[in-house]
Write a structure and sequence with these properties.
Layout: H1 12-22, H2 32-44, H3 49-59, H4 64-67, H5 72-83, H6 94-104, H7 112-122, H8 132-140, H9 155-171, H10 176-191, H11 210-215
């Protein structure tokens, strides 16, 4: 048998449409408790200690001991301050979004990826998670052009990501969380080759990643 031919990538907007369509029926959370924790936080205007630990433990389980160091009053104070700065419009208010995420990172065990999860779970229409996996997916799809592999995420990447998320989600009439989660699944199923944290792991643009493209017939048809 001959080798299976590899199709070419369609235009970026078509790529996003097909990714969203492919994953449209996937539940946004593998743990319903996480979703409920976010809804409670949004309703009361802050995270309780219990709900904070549920969401943080789901996003970064390795930091559970640090998450537990935060008192109920500290969690309430910082999440309430962050929620007061919540945005949902374009253009993004960079100063407010920067301060919002920084309020959350004052808590033990909370870096920008975990802080983005706390926001996304409570406000899925406006926020999505940004971490190494999502940053790599944005790069592989050509949505961002630099810093293809990151060992961490900084404020600059947070602002850049949330701006892109909201613009693209609006164009496709989906929530920011739905767009972000679809990218997460794409990376998990097709783009990750080896351990996520292996420094020797090779990352390629999707357009030249023949191994992934062969499997992505639904994307390159």
């Amino acid at each position: 048998m001959g080798k299976r031919s590899v199709g070419s990538l369609p235009k970026p907007k078509t790529i996003i449409s097909r990714i969203l369509k492919h994953y449209e029926d996937e539940p946004l959370y593998d743990d319903r408790e996480v979703e409920q924790a976010g809804k409670r936080a949004k309703k009361q205007g802050f995270y309780s200690k219990k709900d904070f630990e549920i969401v943080c433990g789901w996003k970064t389980p390795r930091q559970k001991n640090n998450h537990r160091k935060n008192t109920s009053s500290e969690i309430r104070k910082q999440t309430k301050a962050a929620f007061a700065l919540i945005g949902n419009k374009l253009p993004v208010d960079c100063d407010k979004e920067r301060q919002c995420i920084l309020e959350l990172t004052k808590l033990h065990g909370v870096g920008i990826p975990t802080a983005s999860a706390l926001l996304s779970v409570a406000f899925p229409k406006s926020y999505g998670i940004i971490d190494i996996r999502l940053w790599e997916t944005l790069w592989c799809l050509g949505i961002i052009k630099d810093d293809k592999k990151r060992s961490d995420i900084h404020i600059t990447q947070w602002i850049q990501a949330i701006t892109l998320y909201r613009r693209i989600a609006k164009e496709h009439n989906v929530t920011v969380r739905r767009f972000e989660y679809s990218l997460f699944l794409l990376h998990q199923e097709y783009l990750q080759d080896g351990s996520l944290y292996d420094p020797k792991r090779i990352l390629r643009p999707l357009a030249s990643n023949k191994k992934a493209l062969v499997k992505l017939s639904w994307l390159v048809k």
